[in-house]
From TrEMBL, chain A:
UniProt-recorded name of the protein: Iron-containing redox enzyme family protein
SMART domains: Haem_oxygenase_2 (SM01236)
SUPFAM superfamilies for this protein: Heme oxygenase-like (SSF48613)
InterPro entries documented for this protein: Haem_Oase-like_multi-hlx
Organism: Cellulomonas terrae
Domain of life: Bacteria
From TrEMBL, chain B:
Descriptive protein name: Iron-binding zinc finger CDGSH type domain-containing protein
UniProt-listed InterPro entries: FeS-contain_CDGSH-typ (IPR018967), MitoNEET_CISD (IPR042216)
Keyword DNA-binding: no
Keywords, in A-Z order: 2Fe-2S, Iron, Iron-sulfur, Metal-binding
A GO cellular component annotation in the UniProt record: cytoplasm
Domain Iron-binding zinc finger CDGSH type, residue spans: 26-66
Organism name: Cellulomonas terrae
GO molecular-function term, one example from the UniProt record: 2 iron, 2 sulfur cluster binding
Classification via Gene3D superfamilies: CDGSH iron-sulfur domain, mitoNEET-type (3.40.5.90)
Length: 339, 69
């Protein structure tokens, strides 16, 4: 993957840094650090700030598969980690401020699962799934795939960071879900591989990160949320809650997405990703809600608030992305940034 | 040839939801013909509304299906 085009001073400084090998500790001037800190702190809305979210995505990408021409050693460079922290702080503060705080639940398996199912219950309002099912044209359907591709071409990876942070029931539950996400030992059945096939079927490029320059901040933020929760052990409750909410809002919408792509004339290979998720996520939502989130709550009762917050944050950002798509499409404009 | 020891079957009745089935169990249709099982753990519909029966598709949530404990 190539480094993305910077969208402001934060991204430009990071690109300047990453194109050279790391110089050891304290490679970054104090002046640069000060500039970063003030730019990050000055963001009026970190969740929709293009420069902040794309730069944070770039920093997180160092922990996944990195970039062509960027030294792998940058991943653990202390200055780069300090820079990442400067972006995570306003991101977390914005989440704390904007995400509605869920009602508390008892630290018991069924109480937590039932709170999560209540938060994620299907609503009657407009949704991207209903729009794709009934009204989207071919261009809008492609845009939908491009937005999805940032996460889905690496589907499951951010939640996998949590595996070594868990033990017992919640660990076994997470591995059970992830094993299915990763194809149960069959690479061609990995959900990311099924989605790559969907992209190719729609005439799109299936290479990870290919479309990142076209994606608005809010789509990038939805993935950054998973990386934030997944990469920090202190957020292990939130990543468990995030996965539960993600799975619980998947089966029914995926049936509609499949219907939409069939309506537009796509073949079974192209819609298989959606059809697979109708069945798979009806299993995953039970395991993630009861054994992962509920099981973790019983082991570590003090994490209940974080579990529910992780779920609420997932829903909040998914709604922001959905609103962005529907707003653009209802006015006949593209939901993507211009090429 | 399958040489691993048989896996005990568990069927978990999920409140307001499907039956979650783990372990070595063969699924057959009304004629006794096998129904393909595509994952280790499966969820079987018990609300009657699934479009992919006998598997669950989450429809129980849309229709407000409630089980008694």
């Amino acid at each position: 993957m190539k480094l993305p085009s910077p969208r402001g001073p934060l991204g430009a400084s990071l690109t300047d840094l990453l194109v050279h090998p790391p110089q050891g500790t304290e490679a970054v001037d104090d002046e640069v650090l000060t500039r970063w800190r003030s730019a990050a702190a000055a963001s009026p809305d970190p969740l929709t700030d293009d420069d902040l979210q794309l730069t944070l995505w770039t920093l997180y990408a160092l922990h996944y598969r990195g970039f062509e021409g960027v030294d792998d050693a940058w991943e653990w460079d202390p200055d780069v980690l300090r820079l990442r922290r400067m972006l995570e702080e306003p991101f977390e503060a914005a989440l704390r401020e904007q995400v509605p705080v869920p009602a508390p639940a008892a630290p018991e398996r069924e109480a937590v699962a039932s709170a999560l199912f209540a938060m994620t219950a299907p609503g009657p309002g407009p949704s991207v799934a209903r729009f794709v099912s009934r009204s989207a044209d071919a261009t809008q359907a492609e845009e939908f795939l491009v937005h999805r591709s940032l996460y889905t071409l690496m589907e499951a990876d951010p939640h996998t960071w949590a595996v070594p942070r868990l033990s017992g029931v919640p660990k076994a539950a997470l591995v059970e879900v992830q094993a299915d996400e990763y194809g149960g030992g069959r690479p061609e059945r990995m959900h990311s591989a099924l989605f790559a096939r969907t992209m190719r079927g729609a005439g799109l490029v299936d290479e990870y990160g290919y479309y990142v320059d076209r994606l608005p901040a809010v789509t990038v933020a939805a993935l950054n949320l998973m990386s934030l929760f997944g990469l920090h052990r202190r957020w292990r409750g939130a990543i468990a809650g995030h996965l539960a909410a993600f799975e619980m809002t998947s089966s029914l919408p995926n049936r509609l997405y499949g219907d939409g792509f069939r309506r537009l004339g796509h073949d079974a290979g192209t819609t298989e990703y959606f059809d697979e998720h109708v069945e798979a996520d009806a299993v995953h939502e039970q395991i993630a809600g009861r054994d992962l989130a509920g099981g973790l709550a019983e082991q570590e009762p003090e994490l209940v608030g974080d579990i529910l917050f992780g779920a609420a944050a997932c829903l909040y950002l998914d709604d922001l992305v959905g609103q962005h798509l529907l707003d653009a499409w209802s006015t006949g404009t593209s939901s993507l940034r211009s090429a | 040839m399958n040489e691993r020891p048989p896996q005990p079957v568990t069927i978990e009745a999920c409140p307001n939801g499907p039956l979650l089935v783990r372990g070595d169990v063969q699924l057959v249709d009304g004629q006794g013909d096998p129904i393909e099982r595509r994952r280790r753990t499966i969820a079987l519909c018990r609300c009657g509304s699934s479009a992919i029966a006998p598997f669950c598709d989450g429809s129980h949530k849309a229709i407000g299906f409630v089980t008694s404990p």
